[in-house]
Amino acid sequence: METPNATSLAPPRPTVASGHGGYERLLAAAKSREPVRVAVVHPCSSEALEAAIEGRDERLIVPILVGPAARIDALAQQAGLDLADIEIVPTAHSHASAEAAVALIREGRAAALMKGSLHTDELLHAVLDKETGLRTERRLTHAFVLDVPTYPRPLMITDAAVNIYPTLADKRDIVQNAIDLAHAIGIPEPRVAILSAIETVNPEIKSTLDAAALCKMAERGQITGGKLDGPLAFDNAISPEAARIKGIRSEVAGVADILVVPDMEAGNMLVKQLTFLANADSAGIVLGARVPIVLTSRADSVRNRIASIALCVLLVHARLASQQVR
Question: Is it the case that residue 148 has pLDDT exceeding 60?
Answer without folding.
Answer: yes
